[in-house]
From TrEMBL:
Residues 116-558 form the Molybdopterin oxidoreductase domain. GO terms for cellular component: membrane. InterPro entries: Asp_de-COase-like_dom_sf, MoPterin_dinucl-bd_dom, Mopterin_OxRdtase, Mopterin_OxRdtse_a_bac, Prok_molybdopt-oxidoreductase. PANTHER family: PROTEIN YDEP, RESPIRATORY NITRATE REDUCTASE. GO terms for molecular function: 4 iron, 4 sulfur cluster binding; formate dehydrogenase (NAD+) activity; molybdenum ion binding; molybdopterin cofactor binding. SUPFAM superfamilies: ADC-like, Formate dehydrogenase/DMSO reductase, domains 1-3. The keyword DNA repair does not apply. This is Oxidoreductase alpha subunit. Signal peptide: none annotated. It comes from the Bacteria. Residues 638-734 form the Molybdopterin dinucleotide-binding domain. Keywords: Iron, Iron-sulfur, Metal-binding.
Amino acid sequence: MLNKPKKVWNPSNWASWKPFGLGKQYPNNYWELLRAIWENKDQLPYAWDILNQGVCDGCALGTTGMKDWTVEGLHLCNVRLRLLRLNTMAAFDPANLADISQLRAKNSRELKEMGRLPVPMRRDKGDKGFRPISWEEALDCIASHIRATMPDRTSYYLTSRGTVNETYYVTQKAVRAMGTNNIDNAARICHSPSTTGLKSSLGVAATTCSYKDWIGTDLLIFIGSNVANNQPVTVKYLHWAKKAGTRIVMINSYREPGMERYWVPSIPESALFGTKFAEDCFLVNVGGDMAFLNGTLKHLLENNWVDNNFIDNNTTGFENLKNTINSQSWEKLEQLSGSTKEQMYEFAIMIKDAQKAVFVWSMGITQHPWGEDNVRAIINLALTKGFVGREGCGLMPIRGHSGVQGGAEMGCYATAFPGGKEINSENADYLSQVWGFDVPTSKGLITSEMIDAAAENKLDVLFSVGGNFLDVLPDPNYVKNALKQVPLRVHMDILCSPQMLLEPQKTVILLPAMTRYEIPGGVTETNTERRVIFSPEIPGPRIENARCEWEVFLDLARRVKPEIPDQLFFNNTTEIRQEIAQLIPNYAGIQHLKEAGDQFQYGGSHLCFGWHFPTEDKKAKFTALLPPETQLPDGYFVVTTRRGKQFNSMIQERKDAITGAMREAILMSSIDAEKLGLKDGDRVLLKNESGEYEGTVYTAAILPGNLQIHWPEGNILLDKKARSPVAGIPNYNGIVQLEKIP
C-alpha cells in the first residue's frame, strides 16, 4: 500500500513563512485567471463550457472538465487558461492576408492575435498575398498535385497540440491509401527515444504506471524534466506526495526553481506558504545524465544493493551490464557527468533504501543524439530494484501535449503502423486486407527527413496540420529555404503562422480547421498514463468554413483514389472509434466512449504488472551503455535549450514567471561569469558553425561549462544533421564560443 497524505498542515514542507510568498519569484495564478476572463469576455459562457466539459487540450495530464482520476478537487492551470482563447476567438477578415508584406515582421504570437483562419485561401507565385477560395477548389488543387507526382514525393505532418485520436487514425489511413508512409507527428521531436528505449527493454512503449503512483511512493525522481513549467497541474500531485512522505529528487543541468518550491493556488496551505518539492537536487552537465546514472549503478553493484531475486528471475543482460559498468572509471564518470563520486553515492543510498520508486523524464533526456540510450540508462537503474510493474513504481516519459501519446499508437508515424506494429511486408499485407487497398511496405520520411527532402528538391507536396517547422526544428534558416522549394505547401490550422507566409515556389494553400471541441460527435485523447478519454462536442460559436481534419483527408484521398471511395469513408467519429477498437487491441473499449467523463486506462494501472514483460523471452532487458564523450575545447560551452513562459513554440510572455529570466537570457554559472568578467545583464554573443545568438547574461544554479537559452530562439545554434540513431530525434543542444559584446 502507498503511504496516504496527511491532511494536517506541516510547516516543515513550507516554502516560505511569508504569506503568499511575498517578494518571491513565482507565477501569479490568480492574475492568470482574471486575465483569461478578460481575454474571453466576449465568449464567457462558451469558455466556461470548454473548461467544465472538455478534455484539456494542453499537456497530457488529461483533465476532463476540471477534474481528474488522481486527486480530488478542481484542476485548472495557467497553460490551459492561456490556450483557452484559441478556442473562443472569432475569425479574422480574409483581407488581412491580401497583402502579406506588412505581416512578415510579425512573430507567431502577433499573428495568433489576428484571430482564427476564416476560409480556405490560396497564394500562387508572384501574388502579394492570399485570396479566398472554395473548399472544392482547394481540394481539387491539392489532389491534382498529388496525382501528378510519385507518392513518395509527398509528405504529411501533424502537430500534437489538441490533435485527437480520430484525426490521427483517419489521416494515416488516408495517407497510406494515397500510397506513402511519409506521415509523422510531433512525438518524433519529443519522446520518440522513450518509445524506442522502453520497447527494446521492457516490450512496452508507454508509461508503465499511473499518476497516483507519485503520491505515497518512497522516491519520486525527475530527470531532465520540469513539470512545474510544462505540466502545472502536477504541482498539486507533488504537494500531496510531500504530504505522504514521498522524497522528491531532481536530476538536471539547472536547479529549476519551480521544481524546488511552488505556491499551489487551489490548496490553502500551499497557496499561503508554498510547498517545498525537490529538496534533493543533483546537478549534471548537459548530456551528462547517463554518466551520472552509470555512476549510481556502479555504487549499487559494488555494494550489492540490488534485488538479485528479481534480476535472476525476470531480466537478461545483467552480467554484461556489470562488466561494462566495472570498466568505467570514477574519474571518467565524474568528468562526463559533472558530478562527483560522493554525490552519486548519495543518490545510490536513496535507491538502496527505497522500496518503491517512480522515474519521470522529459526532453532533457530525449533530445540528444543518444536519446534512446539515455532512456535505457534510466531503465537500467529502475530494473536493479524491480521498480516496475507494481504499485508505487514505474517509468514515466511525461508528455507535454494533449494529443501526443495517441499519435504513434494510431499509426500516424513514418516508422510504425497502427498499434505500434513494425512497417514490413507482413503487416502491410494484413492492413491491405483489412482496409481494402494496397498499403506501402517501406518506412516513410520522419519529420526532419521531410525538410531534407524539400531542401534537395525531392518533395513536391508538403501537407502540415498545425505546427510551425520554422520554430520547432534546428537551423531555422535551413528550414525556411527548404520550405520555399516545395511546389505545393498546404497548411491546415486554426491560426496563421509564420511558415504560411513564406514565398511559394508555386502554390500555398491554407485550410481552416476546427478545434477538438467543435468536432461533431465528440473525440478522444490519450493522456500520459495511457488513459483514453472522451471529449464531447461543445455547442457554441463556429467558424463557418472550418472543417475537421479527418473529413478533409478522406475527401482528399477520395479525389486522389476515386477507385476506392467506399474504403475511404466514415459517417462520424463513432464509426472511427469502432474501427480503431477492431484494429488496435490496446484500444478495445474506445468504441464505448460516448459521453463526457467516459474513459478507460489501457493496460490497467500498471504495465508489466507482476513482472510479466511482453518481450520474446518474457524478461526485461538490461543494456550495457558507455556514456557519450562530448569534446569541449578550452573556452567553449555546451548549450541546451529550455522553455519559459510558453506552450510548445507558442511564446506567451517575454519574462518567465517562475525563473524571472527574460526570453533573451543566457543562463550561466556564476563561476563562469566571474571568470569571464561578466555580470547579470551583460550582452554576449554565442556562435558556432550553425549560427550566432545574442543574449544577456543571467547567472543561475547551473554547472560551469554549461549554458541554457530559450527555445525556439536558440534553434539557430543547433546542428540540423545531429539526430539520434534510431528514433531520429534532433539534437537540441550545441557547443558554442562566447564573446562579450562591447
